[in-house]
Amino acid sequence: MKKDIKETRQHILDTGYKLIVSKGFSSVGLTEILQSAGVPKGSFYYYFKSKEQFGEEIIKSYFSEYLVALENIFQPRGSSAYSRLMEYWQRWIETQSDSCVDQKCLVVKLSAEVADLSEPMRLALLNGSSLVVKRIAQCIEEGIDDGSIIRADASMTADLLYNMWLGATLMDKLQRNADGLQRAMRITISILTSNTVA
Fold first, then answer.
1. What's the CA gap between 142 and 144, in Å, rounded?
2. Distances (CA, A) of 63 to 105, 129, 134, 142
3. Could you give the maximum distance between any two Cα atoms of the chain, in Å?
4. According to CATH, where is 1.10.10.60 located in the chain?
5. Cα separation, 85 vs 146, whole angstroms
6. What CATH architecture is 52-194?
7. Which stretches does DSSP call E strand in 20-172?
8. In degrees, to the nearest 5, what angle opens at C-alpha 66 toward C-alphas 63 and 67?
9. Per residue in 132-188, pLDDT tens?
10. 1-48 CATH choice from 1.10.443.10, 1.10.10.60, 1.10.645.10, 1.10.3720.10
């Protein structure tokens, strides 16, 4: 794929992401996406077979970038695995709170909307989320090994925490405050340090 074709395709994906994370998948039409991207309408189907495939590619692109950012946070650099996990959750609060416009969680935004509409998009969300949970579990295992996290089933703990944070982010959208995210942080600390919910 030529560089300019690849860049145009990514530009359409990036533009679509910003619109969809703000308005939802069903509420955003192709015309709006392409006008915002400054791309002729007729050329959309050169890059994507359908709006559904476009949505699937947005999800894959989102998780690809998310996992790179996650890896940057979780890379051992002299700090404990517990500290790296806390940095991740703190960044989650900073980027997913109601006051943050640009970095809303695509998983929270699209899961309920597209799960019954598009099997490829549902699977892309599920696969991406599974990779995130797997990487969180790996960091928890590192914390157990370095003594900064209490011994527990790392996979189960990662799954529990990720689900809790997704739910807290959803409640943040409903309540228009970060109380749920702050509560999730307190519970996360308790789970990782004492294996209790306090």
1. 5
2. 10, 8, 13, 23
3. 58
4. 1-48
5. 13
6. Orthogonal Bundle (1.10)
7. none
8. 85
9. 999 999 999 999 999 999 999 999 999 999 999 999 988 888 888 888 999 999 999
10. 1.10.10.60
